[in-house]
Design goal:
Elements (H helix, E strand, L loop, with lengths): L8 H25 L6 H14 L17 H11 L5 H5 L5 H11 L2 H12 L5 E4 L17 E5 L2 E12 L6 E7 L10 E7 L5 E6 L11 E12 L3 E2 L5 H37 L1 E2 L2 E2 L4 H29 L5 H26 L1 H4 L5 H8 L9 H20 L2
Parallel strand pairs: 1-4
Antiparallel strand pairs: 2-3, 3-7, 4-5, 5-8, 6-7, 9-10
């Protein structure tokens, strides 16, 4: 079956309006704050403006105030939103909220959707996804999960330490992964729990100082210490947490790629603008062969990453697991986007290093993407393992 690369007219129009909104409303705010929003009132103002522009929450269903876009349609719109570091926050499609909304819409009960998804989709609250743990706990290998949840009267008690929990500061609730059976290293036995921010057993320990700063709510260490939740807090089924995580992680990897592709395009546009106006050695910078090569390589990386993302999104829209396609797209995109921003900064020279343009901020923001959502090395290992399995299966008599 062929992959249709042409967006639906309705989607194309939404993408155009998103692009206009980002350039006219969001980028001025981004430039004033150096690409970082620390005041929640600013987040609220941006999201109110996105609602007024009709571009808010495009990924959730109409019953939750969104446009109900499938993955391929999201690719077009999310890239336009990602043209600014603050565009995803304004549209309420930033991590981790966007991935949490996607998962809640698919597996939450109707009561859980009413209590958690509806206000999250409206931008009334934020959320976090508490899976990653300090070593030797869950990280690149989720099966190393060591946080425990044990049955108590009328519910569950969660105990464990999480870290690098994005958006935890100010989140209205957490989706916590805890082991309900088996031991660390076992492939199953995890369960997801919805934990309200006011729960006395969930403590925000510290903000982790990181290279990136644009993801709202920071990256935190979180302690679950005698954290008791009722049975209704179980998201999905007991012991099925790892399976549900795949419902979230594959699409979330692709939406990260979509958003960062927008920043790659922005970096390229800044570099091309500089190359067109700056004169050196008797000609425009953009007429010099080495600069032209960097501009061309940027275009190639952006186009290739976009194509891989669309392929993976098409597989996800077909109901496939798309594990191989998402791993390939994520690994290539994370590295290609870094290359694009790095080359763009190089083209701009001293201007690129300065704070007069945001290329330095972009570089700091995109570098961790080669680690987030699975480091490139882990994805390459998984890609190669699937190839070997395919070979072994084909070789069997």
């Amino acid at each position: 079956m062929a992959v249709d690369l042409e967006p639906d007219p309705v989607v194309a129009d939404l993408a155009r309006r998103t692009a206009d909104f980002v350039r006219e409303v969001v980028i001025p705010v981004e430039e004033r704050g150096g690409g970082v929003v620390r005041d929640d009132s600013e987040r609220v103002r941006l999201q109110r403006a996105a609602k007024e522009a009709g571009v808010f929450a495009p990924h959730v269903g109409p019953e939750f105030g969104g446009h109900g876009l499938d993955m391929r349609a999201r690719a077009v719109v999310f890239e336009e939103a990602g043209y600014s570091l603050l565009g995803p926050l304004a549209l309420n499609i930033a991590a981790p909220d966007e991935g949490n909304m996607h998962m809640l819409e698919l597996i939450a009960t109707e009561e859980q959707k009413r209590r958690y998804l509806a206000p999250l989709a409206a931008g009334e609250i934020r959320s976090c996804f508490a899976m990653t743990e300090p070593a030797p706990g869950a990280g690149s290998d989720p099966a190393a999960l060591s946080t425990r949840a044990a049955r108590v009267g009328g519910g569950w008690r969660i105990d464990g330490r999480k870290w690098f929990i994005t958006g935890a500061d100010g989140a209205g609730f957490a989706i916590c992964m805890a082991r309900t059976s088996g031991d660390p290293g076992d492939p199953g036995g995890a369960t997801m729990f919805l934990v309200d921010a006011g729960n006395p057993g969930m403590k925000l320990v510290r903000h982790i100082d990181t290279l990136d700063e644009s993801l709202y709510g920071g990256h935190l260490e979180v302690l679950f210490d005698g954290c008791v939740v009722p049975d209704e807090a179980v998201l999905g089924e007991v012991d099925e947490g790892f399976r549900y995580a795949q419902v979230r992680l594959g699409p979330a990897r692709m939406t990260h790629c979509m958003r960062w592709l927008g920043i790659a395009r922005r970096a390229q546009d800044i570099a091309v603008g500089r190359a067109a106006e700056r004169e050196l050695f008797g000609s425009r910078l953009g007429d010099l062969g080495m600069v032209q090569q960097m501009i061309a390589d940027n275009e190639i990386d952006i186009a290739a990453a976009r194509g891989l993302v669309l392929q993976a999104c098409w597989e996800l829209d077909q109901g496939r697991s798309a594990s191989q396609a998402t791993s390939i797209a994520k690994t290539f995109s994370a590295e290609a986007i870094w290359r694009v921003v790095d080359r763009s900064l190089q083209i701009c020279g001293a201007l690129g290093v300065s704070g007069d343009v945001l290329l330095g901020r972009f570089l700091r923001e995109v570098r961790p993407f080669r680690i987030y959502d699975g480091p490139s090395e882990a994805h390459r290992w998984a890609i190669a393992r699937r190839v070997m399995r395919r070979h072994d299966k084909a070789a069997r008599p």
